[in-house]
Amino acid sequence: MLSVCGCSDGRGQQEIGENSPEMATETESGVVELTVWSESDNFEMMEQMIEAFKEKYAAEAQFEIELVHQPDASTKDTLLADVHNGADVFSMPDDQLLGMIAAGALSPVQNPDEIQNANLPEAVAAATHDDILYAYPYTADNGFFLYYDKNYFTEEDVKTLDGILAVAEQEGKKFAMEFNSGWYMYAFFGCTGMEFGINEDGVTNYCNWNTTEGEIKGTDVVEAMLSYAASEAFLSQGDAEFVDSIKSGEVIAGISGVWNAVGVREAWGNDYGACKLPTYTCAGKQVQMSSFTGYKMMGVNAYSDNVEWAHKLADWLTNEENQTLRFEIRNQGPSNIKAAASDAVNKVPAILAVIEQSQYGNLQRVGNLYWDACTNFANEILEGNPEGKELQKLVDTLVAGITASTVQ
Questions:
Q1: What's the predicted TM-score (pTM) here?
Q2: How far apart are CA 282 and CA 285, in angstroms?
Q3: In 3-state terms, the chain is what percent helix, strand and coil (to 5)?
Q4: Is residue 395 within 8 Å of 219, Cβ to Cβ?
Q5: CA separation for the pair 317, 319 (Å, rounded)
Q6: Is residue 220 domain-shared with residue 276, that is, in the same domain?
Q7: Does one domain contain both 219 and 306?
Q8: Domain coverage including residue 330
Q9: Is residue 76 part of a domain?
Q10: 276 and 193, same domain (yes or no)
Q11: Per-block average pLDDT, block size 10, for the chain (408 residues)?
């Protein structure tokens, strides 16, 4: 199991020394200075939340809170590169939690019972390690599912990938997904009965996607992927291009997440459909496409000069009121139990779809070597296996890359 640096009590809190973050609460001028990392698309919303926080605590302190752009996907790498000068409060996806804990970068939640009771159990579990709650959950929608244009597809069509591609081919349109990303490529392997995950060292992976036994073998999945990638209606493209291709009319169905819901709704209007991922044909049977499930959360830097206020701010930014605001402004699905149960949330197709798909998903707990191995493998598939390699060799190479030791 992972070890937590500097633990001194049952909550995993760091030892308080002469220069520990808990010793400093304000600058010499009496102003509480905090830095918050957030994606720039959320700035206007975050500024609204921060101003409300300042008003609530105006009688207790004067604040200077700086909002700085930081992509959630690289929060961990950026913070651990210079943790002492990192943000006090930051947003991150749940898959970065273990690395943050191992580095001793997170200050555990100070009111864990309150946060646990307010949020969905799965979201709390994603922010917890060794019974310690390390971050404040705020979304339960960081997964992926199928978007489709109801002008072209019936509910029956979108049940299978074969049906989707058949319609797209007939219409001269495209089905899109980021095929050469390990995040999305997992869709083909996750519900096959084969195994994949991260080892207890928190760094390396285990994987048997190259198995030659069982109802579905590794080569069966490779064969299916080659077949689908060869379809004239299949388009591999990144998330950034997805909405543009929908707006241009090129793409009429595709796999993405709620972060693109606003753009899809603007493009398709009342014809915007969303549902769980389809099944695909593999080894002569229909196999449900899988997904990574994910949650976003706010962390507090263990080396913050104002760690107590940082916790209050992180708690504030993720409370029921502000999770509701996130939903209203950014269509982000809440992890707060009351906010998630609202009628408004349950009328959004994208959120209903990610909830429906979650039963076929798994938490993303992945060592770093997984990503490049998947990209290299998927690129060969997209190119149609140009060197004519045996399918077993293709999947053996994939698994070797995924499970490789980080020690060279």
A1: 0.78
A2: 5
A3: 45, 20, 35
A4: yes
A5: 6
A6: yes
A7: no
A8: 21-141+294-335
A9: yes
A10: yes
A11: 28 32 46 96 96 97 97 95 97 93 96 97 94 97 95 98 98 98 97 94 92 97 98 95 96 94 93 97 98 95 98 98 94 93 92 91 89 97 97 98 82
